[in-house]
Amino acid sequence: MSASVTSVAVAGASGRLGTLICEVVDSHPEFELVARLSSRSGEADGADAGIFVDVTTPEASPGLVERAVRRGQKVLVGTSGWSSERIAGLTDLVTEVEGAGVIVVPNFSLGSVLGTALAQIAAPYFDSIEVIEAHHQGKIDSPSGTAVRTAELMAEARERAGCGPVESPYADQRARGELVAGIPVHSLRLAGVVAKQEVRFGGAGEVLTVQHDTISGESYVAGIRAGLEAVRDAAGLTVGLNRVLGLGADL
After folding, report:
1. What is the pLDDT of residue 246?
2. How do beta strands 195-203 and 128-135 pair?
3. Between 20 and 30 A from 201 (CA), which of 52, 96, 179, 215?
4. CA torsion 79→86→33→40, rounded to 10°?
């Protein structure tokens, strides 16, 4: 392997996103795929790779990420389930381990990143906000990591603007969805769907909808490539594709 080529191990390589990431790595002249990891892989498998990519499950991800960080690998995380609480723990880990570099990407789609940014801008202007996200039937977790991150960022934007809590009547009823940062989030798992997110804002006499549809996995390719290139020299913890692309540190 050339000194200019960085080795990559992908955990969750057989999944939809993992398969796509492996294809991106294989087609990139600056990276070499040296390990395709699954639940049957041993702890030492992929340990020699310069970059460790985690696209596994919310249950497995934290342990895999911590192990990779502690053995000195740069880590790119595309697994759902990294809430603000988990991010806080990861921040402590990255601070503890000298030279650590981790990038967490809830969604590799540029359109999704921009949709979340627009939702964040709109959030302080509407007190009635709900999120509806839909994914294919094979997605294990709900709500999606993108929906969780969108809700958290909208809540932060409202707090900075001095707004009160979002109006979410009857939130104790199961059919009203799950409250994330005080915002109801509804999850659909349907055949024929790749990924979709709607953020609906209700106001006096009007409704604003910010919607993003993923039609195919091709929408993730540019973001995956950008994440790989950025994590190679990453220092500290970066959360969000927007920061990788320079679209704003607060999105």
Report:
1. 81
2. antiparallel
3. 215
4. -80
Task: Say which residues have a Cβ less than 8 Å from residue 43's Cβ, sequence separation at least 6.
Answer: 67
- Kindly state the percentage of the chain with pLDDT values over 70: 97
The H or E element that residue 199 is part of is strand 195-203
Rounded Cα–Cα distance for residues 111 and 56 (Å)? 23
| Beta-sheet pairing, 101-104 with 178-180 | unpaired
**Strand pairing report for 6-11 and 31-37:** parallel
| Cβ atoms < 10 Å from Cβ of 94 | 21
Q: What is the pLDDT of residue 161?
A: 97
Q: Residues 11, 70: one domain?
A: yes
Q: Which residues are catalytic?
A: 135, 139
144-190 residue pLDDT tens: 989 998 999 999 999 999 999 999 999 999 999 999 999 999 999 99
pLDDT in tens, 105-123: 988 999 999 999 999 999 9
Tell me if 102 sits within 8 A of 237, measured CB to CB.
yes
DSSP 8-state code for residue 211: E
d(CA 87, CA 110): 22
Q: In whole angstroms, give the CA distance from residue 110 to residue 122.
A: 19
Q: Which domain holds residue 207?
A: 110-215
43 assigned to some structural domain: yes
**26 and 7 in contact (C-beta within 8 Å)?**
no
Report the alpha-carbon angle 36-230-239, nearest 5.
90
pLDDT of residue 4: 83
pTM: 0.82
Alpha carbon distance, N-terminus to C-terminus of the chain:
37
